[in-house]
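[INFO] parsing input record for non-specific serine/threonine protein kinase
[DEBUG] input buffer:
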Amino acid sequence: MSQHWTVRACCCGLQAAILILDFSQPSTKFRQETKYQIQGTMLSKSPALSIISSLCFFWFLIFSFPSCSALETNATDYEALMAFKSHLLLQENSILATNWSSTAHFCSWLGVKCLNKRVIGLQLSGLALQGQLSSDIANMSHLVEIDLSSNDLGGVLPSELGFLQRLRILNVTKNSLQGRIPENLSRCGELQELDLSYNFIAGSIPEELGRLRNLRQLAVDHNNLTGRIPASLGNFSKLEYFYLHENDLVGEIPVELGKLASVTVIALRNNNHTGSIPDSIFNISTMQVMDLSINGLSGRLPDSLGSRLPSLQRLFLDSNRITGRIPAFLSNASKLTHLFLTENDLSGNIPDEFCELQNLEWFEFEYNQISGGIPYSLFNITSLEILKTRHNYLSGGLPHDLGNWLPNLQEIFLSHNQFSGEIPPSICNATKLTSLEASNNSFNGPVPMMLGNLVELEHLNLQVNLLVNNPLSTHLDFFDSLVNCRNLQYLVLDSNPLNGIIPDSVGNLSSNLKVLTAISCKLKGGIPHSIGNLSSLNFLGLSNNNLQGKVPSSFAGLQNLERIYLTGNKLEGTVPTEFCSIQVLGILHLGENSFSGSIPLCFQNLTELREISLAANSLNSTVPLGFWDLVKVEGVNLSRNQLHGTLPMELGNLKAVNIMDLSSNDFSGEIPNSVGSLQNLLTLDMSRNKFQGPIPNSLSNLIVIEFLDLSLNELSGGIPPSLGSLLDLKYLNLSFNMLQGEIPTTGVFTNITSEDLMGNPNLCGAPKLNFPLCSARAPGQRKKSSLVLKITIPIAATLLVLIGLLVWLSLSRKKHLKNPTGSDSLPVGHQGISYYELLRATESFCESNLLGKGSSGMVYKADLSDGTVAAIKVFNMEYTRALQNFDVECEVLSKVRHRNLVKIISVCSNMDFKAMALEFMPNGSLDKWLHFESNSLSLVQRLDIVIDVAMAIEYLHHDYMIPIVHCDLKPSNVLLDEDMTAHVADFGIAKILAQDEELIRTKTLGTIGYIAPEFGLDGHVSTKVDVYSFGILLLETFTGKRPTDDMFREGLSLHQWVNRSFPGALKEVLDPNLVYDLNSGKEGVTKKQSQVGDLLMPLIHVALLCLKDLPEERIDMRGIGVELKKIRAQLKHSCGRSQTPKY
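[DEBUG] output buffer:
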């Protein structure tokens, strides 16, 4: 090395005299592509310096110093190139190994550019080079360009690069470089382009880089840079492109960046910037693209924004915390083509002045609080291609000529607003439309008849509106038109009162159709045989209609069908054997129909089946033995049939089962001991059968079970005390059997009620539950009295129960007559509801309306008299904390208002009855979707759900006037509405902190597995308790593992299991269903992004930040919300979910 620098020294006079030469070709980045393309013009400029005089002087000096020139040529550049090559890992037959040979002069080597036999350029882009970047490269003192982009070079950037005084272009993008940015680069005073993007460079940006006064492009994006943006970067007076996005930079954006007077692109996307956007940045009149999205920026946008940025074409501010109104004068930025304001806290109306943005192509402002109507003038922007308004408070109707005014419209998303009126038929004239989503509004009138004009349509979602069928037809005529949409993949019509017959033309829909759902649409008639033509169909949902007749045999042709939902119709006949030929079938819901006969023997061939429901039919056979070999099944519901016979030991083969409901049948014999091997079981309901014999001791092996109902059978013997060791068991019902002996006193039995044990007159040992103390009598005495007891006790008990029931009904009737609305304790702002209304709405609390039950009460579905569908939570007044839970939940839900918190509708409350009417969530809990629904949640759905939960808890902790701690955050308390939006529920043990209170103590604990360490040990409650629970919820959502899974024993926890795989082996702990979907491309992930662990690493990182042992070290919910929104935005960008890229 020293020898080379000696050579350089001997020619220092020559080097000082030689003028820096310019290339006649543009640089790699400018030549090949730019990161932001604007209106079809590449934002690039090529250096255009004259080199004639420099060449003349150069030759003069060469001839003046011949020996020095020869020495440098032979000894310096050649040796530097060979040293560079020696640091590469080259295969024998690689291009560089064969081409860089001593048989030819190095100036003829591939990628080597020379001038007068001196190396001035090294252009080796895209050669898959591996190895490290040798510091000897700095010995080629005449280098003007280094382009090593798109290789796989590792190691660090040599600090010796700073000695290259002539260097104008340094491009090492898309490699695997690590380390830090060398401060010495600041000595390359002629540097114009510095591109270090798409590497693994860490550390902070050196302050010294601000000395590069000739820099035109700085690209350090897609690295692991940390720290703040140095204020010195504002010294780049010639800078045109400023790329710092996709790093971990923090702090406020420096005011000094406003001095970048020549800049056209500023990209700071996906960092951790906070504070307001500096006003100075809006003074850069040359700015064409500003991307500040996915940060934590706050404050308001200046009213004069548009006037001060006359050249602005693309503005990306999505996924921040910007407040206030959308500035009306943004309309002065007349060249604007892309405006992204999604996921902020913007309010007010859409400015009428936006009609002046006649070049606007993409406008999105989803997930804000924008209200009012969309100005009709906005629909006069004929250039508009994409309009996204989801999750706001927009109202009013759409203009009748919408489709005529927007001929270039490709995507329109209007869901989750308050739009009303008809969907204008003219929308069918927007023939370039690929996506039309208008769900969760109040649109009414008929579905447009000419949707078939939309020949490019791929996605049509009209669910949860008031749309009807053509009143002149009994058939759904719009299907006939949709036949012309040959690209249609998703057709979602759920929860509209269509009230029609599915036409035969359904079978002529697009051969690409993957999803067809019309749940709760009042459909009638039969399922057309032609539906079997939809060969690509993956998801068919026709539940909760009035469909009749038999399931067509053509279902056998639907070989890609993974999910079938036909629950709640009037279908009849035997259960079709045609389902057995669908090898990929994962979910089969046929409940609440009129199927009869037997369960098909061939169901044993459905080896991918994860969930099966045949509940509430008229099946009257035994269960085929092969049924119990469906080892992947997670949910089984055979309840409310006439199934009979005994249960075989093979039942224990269902190792994956989480829910098993065999209730209300005629099963007999003993419960097999093998039931104890179902160690993932959470719910087991065997009630209302004829089971005999003892309760198996093996039930104590069901260590995660939460719900066990064995009532109304003929079980005998004692209650196994080991049931008290089941820590997660919250509900146990053993009533109306022939059990005897002492009632255990541990575990679930500490809160068990008399109703859960009644009808077992030989039980004893619980005086508080009206069971006598157990007497210690001799065996002979017991024999003599046993016959008498067997006769008299059942009779006496039955009489007592009947008398008690009559007295209770009489007293209840008197009380309810005195207090018909049941409103002695109502939350403020909510009208009471009468007990009689609840009886009517739930059909006297009929079991068919039961949604769930636990130790604290039961939840029923109810159709209230005003047409509202509600969930009625009836509190178990025998439960010791029932009154306190009711009061707390009323207090919390009556005060808070947030879109992701479950809403209270009304209450019914008197001395002996407490109930609460809550908004109904038709898609159940997150827990059900994670553990009982097969392949039902995509990556994006899971991410949307956890963000919804984070927003709800953030509101409780930070945005409500007094902090509220939920204290029991877990998937079963996260409910999902029609559109899979999450709502946090169950505030029974929530804690309200005082104004200045950060920590309180409590003896009421949450659920094991989700409890923060300080909560479980000392009863300390702070907002960081919910943060910890949220971290567990995150891990469970993306690993599919409960914290109480059987594998987490002997000191190993879910947290530790994931942490030891982070970050290098994440794929091993992720939910296999999620990994499969990502690897198979179902999520739209490209090949490079199919490294699943890398894709989800940021999510798991957030979870681990939540799970720090010390509360003060955990991230808060506001920070969690920012991080998750960034991840979602990055994922949407990476997976290409939008048809048109941002830039």
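[INFO] The chain is about 20% helix and 20% strand.
[INFO] shutting down worker
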